[in-house]
Amino acid sequence: MAENSLNVIRTEDERQLIQQLIQQLMKGDESAFKQIVETRKLLVYNTVFGLLQNPEDAEDVTQEVFIKVFEVIHQFKGESSFSTWIYKIAVTKSLELIRKGKRKKRFAFITSLFGENEEIKYDPPEVNHPGVVLENRENANKLFAAIRQLPENQRVAFTLHKVEGIPYQEISEIMNMSVSAIESLIHRAKTNLKKILKDYYLNNK
Fold first, then answer.
1. With contact defined as beta carbons under 8 Å apart, do 53 and 141 qualify?
2. Nearest to 91 by CA among 183, 166, 184, 188
3. CA quadruple 167, 170, 172, 174: dihedral positive or negative?
4. Are 153 and 175 in contact (CB under 8 A)?
5. Long-range pairs for 191-198: beta carbons < 8 A, 24 or more residues apart
6. Over the stretch 83-110, which tens digit does the pLDDT of each residue have?
7. Is the CB of residue 95 less than 8 Å from the CB of residue 52?
8. What does the pLDDT look like over 157-189, one tens digit per residue?
């Protein structure tokens, strides 16, 4: 059997399994919830970490995401994929943490990392994103520091697409925006990142 056909079968099997687990969870089956956590925890953690860039924050928010999933599973209507639905919750929870300023209370180094105009004063602490290989870590740290300076929507769209590899269509569903709006956000994010990184390297020669 061709590899593409096998992939389709695997995808369909996974979809059916998730649907079964969702139905079981709606009936209060805790074992189904544990299976959902096991199959989706890496997806959620990576997404949250990409936005928050701190492992402790990411772990806390990942827990909050699954608590929310458990509480509102009855609101899942299947209008989008289950992964997209969880991505939405993960992004919402991450932004809530950022907006409340909890990170500043817990991690004082962030306030000393950037100047008044949010220019990079020195290299940030190492960011160990699961998707970053060791030899690219130094460049990734600088990129993540620059991403932090983007406007919120640009930061979310860029992180979801370029860091997590989520396609435009799915990001548009997650962010409740058109595909063209997502494309525009990512284009502006790339333009801003080029400027931020250019200024950084010019100031640190």
1. no
2. 166
3. negative
4. yes
5. 192/149, 192/150, 192/154, 193/143, 193/146, 193/147, 193/150, 193/158, 196/120, 196/146, 196/149, 197/142, 197/143, 197/146
6. 999 999 999 999 999 888 654 444 443 3
7. no
8. 999 998 888 999 999 999 999 999 999 999 999
Could you give the CA distance from residue 47 to residue 62 in angstroms, rounded to a whole number? Answer: 9
Q: What share of the chain is helix, strand, coil (3-state, %, to 5)?
A: 75, 0, 25
Cβ atoms within 10 Å of 140's Cβ, excluding its own: 18
Of 62, 60, 23, 56, which is closest to residue 43 (Cα–Cα)? 62
Amino acid identity at 35? Q
